Please model this.
Amino acid sequence: MKYVTGVKIYTDGACRGNPGPGGWGAVMLYRDRVRELSGGDRHTTNNRMELTAVIKALAELRKSAEIDVYSDSSYVVKGMTGWIHDWKRRGWKRASGSLENVDLWRELAELADLHRIRWHWVRGHSGDPLNERADELAKTAVPSVKDREKTENPTPW
Model:
């Protein structure tokens, strides 16, 4: 299989409260092109937003690629470089029982199988401009209290 080379993806997730309203952001680079993605959820966790950021970025790719994914989430990086193998072997369970966010882990695993991915952990808030941009996108995407009230308390007519 032929892979597109040179794709880089920086991702981050954010949450106000955990659980609470959350956002995710991704910066995708290929050659001289940059694409930014973001979104949010009214009630979620930080880990779900971290996973969602990677999922949404990988879902944007139309061809199989060699990708460097950069995340400040050790949960995502350790999950994809180590833990996932045991989870799959156990039927998507941890040794101690159920696996949190199994829906997202399964989706991420399916997308990751389409590519060759090198996973990189980067220290958050350490000055890496693309990690900082992904963080900014995630924080900006967190639904505001006003937005939540509009959605959670719709007009009765």
Observations:
- The helical segments are 46-59, 74-89, 102-112, 129-141, 145-152.
